[in-house]
Amino acid sequence: MSLPPEFDLTGRVALVTGGGTGIGRAIALLLAERGADVAVVGRRLEPLEKTVADIEALGRRALTVPASVRKVGEVQAAVAKVADHFGRIDILVNNAGGAHGHVPLAKLDPEKWDRDIQLNLSAAMYCSQAAFPHLKASRGCIVNISSLAGVHGTQGVAAYSAAKAGLQMFTRVSSAEWGPSGIRVNCVAPGMTATEAARAGWEARDYDAMDACRNFPLRRYGEMREVAQMVVFFASDAASYITGETVAVGGGPQIGGMIKVED
């Protein structure tokens, strides 16, 4: 069955940072399923090549672009490579990010603070700025990947939380500045999601992830494809009149109460 036209991404080119593993890989694959050609950017070549092979198996064109999104020069070169290879860029997904360990704020090394801010916030600006002329030409869109840590905050990852909150405001400001150029900018904030790295961490710490979700309305953690579905919606024409928004994909609001509610 063919896709409704507003969800069909055939003929479009997407650039996904951090596209070799985890949520980024899930986003890249779903974009390809919907018809897009996809370039994946990241530091490690092997996972990028695996993602590219899987995209090509879906019948779409794909490109591996090794680069560090923390380095402006490498970002500019990566964006230029994608534009030269495909002739255009329609969709930018600023997915690369992560926290470098859990450290109390009083003991946080300033260099680690700077590194997490750069990876989770500054990198999105570098990529967006580099892609701007191409997205203006195609009247394309940007989807930033934040986190519920940027909505509520998470102890032990102050820099990550602050950067993800900043990314949401960057989404609002860039959408206002670039909307007249036809560029939409939106943001997705995943909650607890079962990425490969998350599962490995749960297992290593003997952490009961499902028990940790007992106060979520949906009583479970999310899957990577569930996050990807929101990203791909924002990238499609189905979201053609939505910009500057952040949507949580986190199993619902964690609201306490004063009464016992039946399941």
Detailed description of the structure:
The protein is of the alpha/beta class. It is globular and about 55 Å long. It starts with 12 loop residues before the first strand and ends in a 14-residue tail after the last strand. α3 runs parallel beside α4 (110-138). Strands 3-2-1-4-5-6-7 form a seven-stranded parallel β-sheet, with helices on both faces. The mean pLDDT is 94. It has helices at 22-33, 45-57, 72-86, 110-138, 149-152, 158-178, 196-204, 209-212, 224-235; strands spanning 13-17, 37-42, 62-66, 91-94, 141-145, 184-190, 246-249.
Task: Give a nutshell description of this structure.
By secondary structure, the protein is α/β, with parallel strands linked by helices. The chain has helices at 22-33, 45-57, 72-86, 110-138, 149-152, 158-178, 196-204, 209-212, 224-235, and strands spanning 13-17, 37-42, 62-66, 91-94, 141-145, 184-190, 246-249.
